[in-house]
Design goal:
The protein is of the alpha+beta class and 180 residues long. The protein has helices at 4-13, 19-26, 30-39, 56-68, 146-162; strands spanning 84-91, 120-128, 131-137. The protein has five helices and three strands, in the order H-H-H-H-E-E-E-H. It has a three-stranded antiparallel sheet with strand order 1-2-3, with helices on one face. The longest helix has 17 residues, at 146-162. InterPro entries: RNaseH_sf (IPR036397), Transposase-MT_Hybrid (IPR052709), Transposase_1 (IPR001888). One of its GO terms (molecular function) is nucleic acid binding.
Length: 180
């Protein structure tokens, strides 16, 4: 017969160990340890997931950063200086639904609907607060790589210059992709 105190000591000493392991160590059956542990008011629960552990220094940095944000000078033109870019797969089919003129007795011509999976292209577009700056439809089956993105940024810079929005551009003469 195992005393409740020895089961309690085992559970408190190593709460992550299973009741089967405690039973082996205490030389008794698993159901005995399980029922006695539950009778003592203990239950087995899973740990709670957290995204990551923060040190005190990390917490202090986050708090001070959040407290400093309202103190920064408010710039109304902040949003005007931003360029947003996005990519989206779109169904691109130049076979548009056609309208035709017919006399009263003629039969209506037919046209097949586009297949939803036939021609999907990647649409890459860049805009600012005034509207669209640049967009590009990549060829079917192509995706954005580092080289494609660098070329798009260069074309975006050229489009911004042509539109007279030089103030949006960085001070460097060419745009190169950073580390990925």
């Amino acid at each position: 017969m195992v005393e409740d105190s020895s089961i309690l000591d085992a559970v408190k000493g190593d709460p992550e160990v299973s009741t089967r392991s405690h039973a082996t160590r205490l030389r008794c059956t698993h159901p005995t340890v399980l029922t006695r542990t539950q009778a003592l008011g203990y239950r087995k629960v899973l740990t709670r997931w957290i995204s990551h552990v923060l040190t005190d220094a990390m917490r202090f940095t986050r708090v001070s950063t959040c407290q400093s944000l309202p103190l920064r000078p408010q710039r109304k033109e902040f949003l005007e200086d931003l360029i947003a870019g996005d990519e989206s797969w779109v169904l691109y089919d130049s076979n548009a639904h056609r309208a035709v003129w017919l006399s009263r007795g003629e039969d209506q011509p037919t046209q097949a609907k586009s297949d939803l999976h036939s021609k999907k292209c990647l649409l890459c577009c860049f805009r600012d607060s005034r509207g669209m700056l640049y967009y590009e439809l990549l060829p079917q089956g192509h995706t954005v790589t580092g080289t494609v993105y660098a070329n798009e940024l260069q074309k975006l810079a050229d489009a911004a210059r042509q539109d007279g929005r030089d103030e949006l551009l960085p001070t460097c003469s060419t745009i190169t992709p950073g580390p990925m």
